[in-house]
Amino acid sequence: FKNLKREVGIYLERGLEFNNIYIGGGTPTVMMDELTCLIEYLHKNLQIEAISLETNPDDVTVENISILKGLNVKRLSMGVQSFNDDLLRDIGRMSHTGREAVRGAEMAQGEFDTFNVDMLYNLPTQTLAMFRRDVETALNLGVDQITFYPLMPAKGRRVDIEKSVGKIDFVRERAFFEYVVDRMLESGYKPSTCWCFSRGEQMIDEYIIDCAEYIAVGSGSVGLFNGTFYVNSFLPGKYCEMVESGKLPVVMYRELSRHEVAYYHLLTYLFGMGILDNRRRISEEVSILDDMKGEIGLLKLLGVVDSVDGEVRVKRDGMYLISVMMREFFTALNDLRYYCRTEGL
């Protein structure tokens, strides 16, 4: 946590400022004292408009909720994954039980501007009936927002999962996805993304949708700034050594071409159920509609999007294909993370 502050300080010295903060990629609430110091540092040095934070059910306590509200955390996302204890054991989530997840949700709901519950689907030992029970449990809790993630392990991690739990069958993924969309729409939730469903206007945790660029801080984080995609060191010792010497802990980077930037933003914007029109520009030089005419035309032919009066939007029947595209994007990121760990970067 001390080196997180040091890394932020390096960016501040270079004249960068941030107003939206997302803290996750792990469970930062496991060390509340250190987390509190970090957020206080951010408030002292930045004009922060919103903070979104990840947590586990076992960290949701009356005391912690009070502390996080006092730190002006606007959105709390709780990683439930499943309310089924057998499934939690299968995926190695031993930090909580289904009953503890219910208790945590009951405590946190209504305490923040947005309270989200994360769920997983298409686990090898998960049947559709089991998943339906999970969805109903989440709905009965009346939470502001539920985000459903398909299983998307790195290739190396997939081998381990299939050895220990069972084969991952992506063919059946669509049945889970279609049930989610139908049930959530039926229950009055609206899609904030192809995976995230909200009651009313809520914050979402996919900062890649709301932010054209984002600075990533911390070991193993990935960012996009000035058209360059970069990766921080995945080795905590190496990360700390680089930051303590006053260097940014970047170990890999790639400058994206204009077309790659347009591809990326087309995917993230469609994933976020946004409306594309001539006002939607990445920069003065790059327009999604102009640069992606061929790709958008193909998506129209496939029935994924429609176009009315110059506006392009995702159709209900096109949501699954966009979901698959985003799943593959995140799988590629997980492959990169796996590579960095195995190569000692």
Topology as H/E string?
HEHEHEHHEHEHHEEHEEHEHHHEEH
Strand content: 15-25%
| Mass-distribution shape | globular
Q: Estimate percent helicity.
A: 40-55%
Rg (CA only): 20 Å
Alpha plus pi helix count? 14
Known CATH architecture of the domain at 75-205:
2-Layer Sandwich
Secondary structure class reads alpha/beta
For the largest beta-sheet, the strand count, sense and barrel status come to: 7 strands, mixed
Extract low-pLDDT stretches: none
- In CATH, what is the class of the domain at 75-205? Alpha Beta
Give the assembly state of these chains: single chain
Q: N- to C-terminal separation?
A: 20 Å
Q: Give the integer mean of the pLDDT values.
A: 91
Q: How many individual β-strands?
A: 12
CATH domain fold name of the domain at 75-205: Transcription Regulator spoIIAA
- Spatial arrangement of strands, main beta sheet: 1-2-3-4-5-7-6
How do you describe this structure in short?
This protein is an alpha/beta fold. The chain has 14 helices and twelve strands. 44% of the residues lie in helices and 17% in strands.
Fold blueprint:
Layout: H1 2-13, E1 20-23, H2 32-45, E2 50-55, H3 62-70, E3 75-81, H4 85-90, H5 98-108, E4 114-121, H6 128-140, E5 145-150, H7 155-164, H8 173-186, E6 190-191, E7 196-198, H9 207-210, E8 222-225, E9 228-232, H10 236-244, E10 250-255, H11 258-271, H12 288-291, H13 293-301, E11 305-308, E12 311-314, H14 319-342
Parallel strand pairs: 1-2, 2-3, 3-4, 4-5
Antiparallel strand pairs: 5-7, 6-7, 8-9, 9-10, 11-12
Helix pairs in contact: 1-2, 1-10, 6-8, 11-14
